[in-house]
Amino acid sequence: MKSYRKELWFKTDQRRKLINITREIEACLAESSISEGLVLVNAMHITSSVFINDDESGLHHDFEVWLEKLAPEKPYSQYRHNGYEDNADAHLKRTIMGREVVVAITGGKLDFGPWEQIFYGEFDGKRNKRVLVKIIGE
Question: What CATH number is attached to the domain comprising 34?
């Protein structure tokens, strides 16, 4: 069995942003030369997320509105965590959206259902953060 590991780095210009990283993961898969196996993609920071969904702008807007209702950024004083930092809402949003995804690899391709894409979700941006890509298989 072969193994491949790579870190992808992101720095958003906004506090919150959803980024389609499917092409980057496909490039990692091509680089790995693995044709049958699994790929793990996970956020290495507690205020960012990796998830699978549709790449549709209306849906992305709906995520933003929904997440803000569930864990509003302000007022900062509503959260006990917010003392030194003001990012408690980002921790909660990450918990809701998830830490990682695992995707099957079949015939050297990501084995997706219709419309599935991999996204990096940033909830406390404007600094460097990384995503781990780990691929195992033959």
Answer: 2.60.120.460
